[in-house]
Amino acid sequence: MPPSEKAPFYDPIPPTYDEALATSSRYDPDDWEPAPRSPTGERNALETESQSLLRNPGGAGGSSRRSDGYRAPTVETDEEESLWGSDSDSDDETAQVRREVQEMEIEEPDRSRGSLWGKRMGFLSLPQWKWSWRPSLPRLRIQLPSRPEAPAADSTEDTEADAAPDPEATQSRQWWPKIDRTTAIIIGVRAFALMIVLGFVYLLFASDLFGGLSDRIGGGFRFNPEDLRVHVQQSVDPRRLRASVQHFSSYAHIAGTEGDYATAMDVESMFSRAGLDEVVIDEYKVYLNYPRKDGRAVQIMDSKDSEKAIWAAKLEEEERGGETAGRQTYAFHGHSKSGDVKGPLIYANYGSREEFQLLKDKGIKTKGAIALVRYYGTQGDRALKVKAAELAGFAGCIIYSDPADDGFLKGSVAPNGPWMPADGVQRGAVSLMSWVVGDVLTPGWESKEGQPRMKPAESPGLVGIPSLPLAWRDAQILLQHLKGHGKKVPTGWAGGVPDVDEWWTGDESSPIVRLKNEQDEVDQQPIWNVYGKIVGMEQRSKSIIIGNHRDSWAFGATDPHSGTAVLIEMARIFGDLLQRGWRPLRTIEFMSWDAEEYNLIGSTEFVENNLDSLRENAFAYINLDTAVTGSSFHAAGSPMFRKTLLHALGRVMDPVSNVTLRELWDGRKATLDGLGAGSDYVAFQDIAGTSSLDLTFEGGGHPYHSSYDKFELMEEHIDPGFVYHDLMSQVVGLLLLDLADRAIVPFDMSSYGDRLEGWVNDLENWFKSKTSKRDGKSKKVGKTDISFKELKDAVKLVQHNAKAFEKWEMTWDSKVLSNGGWEANDIGAERLEYNNKMSLFETSLLDLELGGGVPNRTQFKHVVFGPQLWSGYDEAFFPAIRDTVDAGDWKAAQRIIAKTAAIIRKAATVLEMTA
């Protein structure tokens, strides 16, 4: 019965003492149950009033005595003529005892919110209210003996003697209360009851009963796992996801700016409001650059007067408006080189090394020229386009967005569609993230105050020539001026820019183009990561990490705030579960990274600052970046995640297709892709050895890194109704539950062994294709001197050990089931060892020797995963081997094959149970 339906525990008109005994009006606080909370967790008015009355039974004054002296009786007796029913109230001694007993009975300790007991109540359905439970001792009620009947005849002398006060007795009672038989009985019984309760509690903990209860699977003190999954899926709110995207994309916030700091404060506030256990802001000092308003120019110069411009590019996008603060971001390249250079314009298609070599083979001189290349294509990494131009002798590089790759030839353009419009500019960093990741001035260590720093000119992560991005609206003029200069472009080089009737390469006779890029450079610019944490109850040091970057080149509705919305929603849902009494077995960490767009800085600095702890304790990292740009689900990551990912996809229904995501995945014959160097998973997977997973819903396209990537475009064209934001949140929520709260972490070790075998075969085939293109001598040397047998044998050992290792899970199941669902201490210790070994396997694939890692890119330690040297966004399985083969050093390649095989064999030995 809720409090509102209970009779009040006090009477509005004070009764006489005899009336109170006759009606037996009593209130027992232990019979009262708190009313359900509102969805916001606030107490309702009745509960607030009841709790106030519970703490202050006598009214607002807080006294247990009413104004007329009436005090509600609290110790009951079945006898009519009891001590409390006697008319002899003139007896001071009896009255004193009665008052003391009543005070002991009526005063209750304050019942505060919040539970210190972290174990879960189990096989219980998930409560619909937020609750906290604190154990309390039972109240003991005893029947006191009646006072003996007074003698029939009282002598006058005895009466007078009783009436005369004793000065010594009065003085004694003032300093130490007189304890009679009744008081002694009460104190003794309560002390005895307290000893019994304390003894019982001691026995519980001494027998490790709570440990066993917390480790039980499918029963005991745990929430029902199925109830948790259903609750998480049903708790996702598309309206909240929409609100997050709208809020964070309402103003520009490049890393290190005021707008960026405002987003950090917002995320901190949201994590705190979610009720996470810990929320922290972590600051680093890093190298960043910023554009100057009049510091950038792309101009065609008068051939007669190279100081006079006959045309100048607009550079900036049309003002989109609508931002709540600040201004629209200027078009520029992060980490670009300052400079003001001039030279003949030469078109080089996508700007790959092979295409620059083709220009050289055609006799086109490129030294001192200005390169014009387009985004995407044979060289997807913009930084490597600039680096390839630098190595080919160019003085500067312009990168434009071609409609054949990202524009009207693909479909409707923004703001009426998802593709890049004529004035759209793709900003981005040109730091060499596949060579150096993180702060380019502190490669390999954290950028904290007092740490050593390189000079920008010394950093291998920075390019050596200036560059700028351009819209095809401006590139059209440049391409038209190339007509008749150089050679007609090879097949496949012609883009989709309209009104360019002939495509020419250009040469030293081409129009002179000026590229100006004067900027502000800050060696130690503060950036801010924001962390939130839910501490695990069984293995608090072991963590499942989910991360998303917060900074953006412009407004960033898709990149990154489709991912930000999911991250915030996960913090809200799991924080709400925490308030309902749930707690995961392992710690969950929510990470909002800064300066990702500038070379993955925030996440990398965190990893470098916590490297030993992550290698020992981080079980998994889930990355959200450009989480939703369409409706097709894609995933890339360690094979460890295959089993749990498919399990999650099988539970999530696509309302458009009316089938599960698993069915769509299987219909495409999709697999987990490899991880290159595209987002914040790089430092976790390749440096810390933390198994990582990157999740996206992909579509046809979106105006990447442009000011057109706004909330309205997301709502109207990319994800109307935020349906796929909802589905992504469900998938991520299920993954977090599986990884953080399953007794056995659902890693797929057999899948890892199988994928290793496929990758070794692909490596061997790649090597054969490389050598077959060389001359006869190199081809012969390649076939006879390089052997992959040692590597294949190591992979077979992994496969053998993984299959035997996974059988232990069946042993665990049978032991727990045979014991009625209870997990004994020894089997629990084996389970924790089993989980730790699965996590340690990925870490064991790191090359941690002094100077180890990929040659000349020693930040990258993983022998299996890593970015390609000249295709940074793409994965390169066995990157160290591929680099040495690309360099043509066969002996070094064979040594690295042997070293890689030894590391894989060592990792295979991890998959052995000691028991």
Automatic annotation (TrEMBL):
Q: Where is the composition biased (Acidic residues)?
A: 76-94, 155-165
Asked if the Swiss-Prot or TrEMBL record annotates the protein with the keyword Membrane, the reply is yes
Q: Which GO terms describe its molecular function?
A: carboxypeptidase activity
Source domain of life: Eukaryota
Q: Give the compositionally biased regions (Pro residues).
A: 1-15
**Would you tell me the protein name for this molecule?**
Glutamate carboxypeptidase
UniProt similarity note: Belongs to the peptidase M28 family. M28B subfamily.
Q: Write out the transmembrane intervals.
A: 183-205
Source organism of this protein record: Cylindrodendrum hubeiense
Q: Which residues form the PA domain?
A: 341-429
**Keyword terms, alphabetized:** Membrane, Transmembrane, Transmembrane helix
Instruction: Tell me the segments the record calls region Disordered.
Output: 1-113, 147-174
UniProt cross-references to InterPro entries, sorted A to Z: PA_dom_sf, PA_domain, Peptidase_M28, Peptidase_M28B, TFR-like_dimer_dom, TFR-like_dimer_dom_sf
Q: Which residues form the Peptidase M28 domain?
A: 529-712
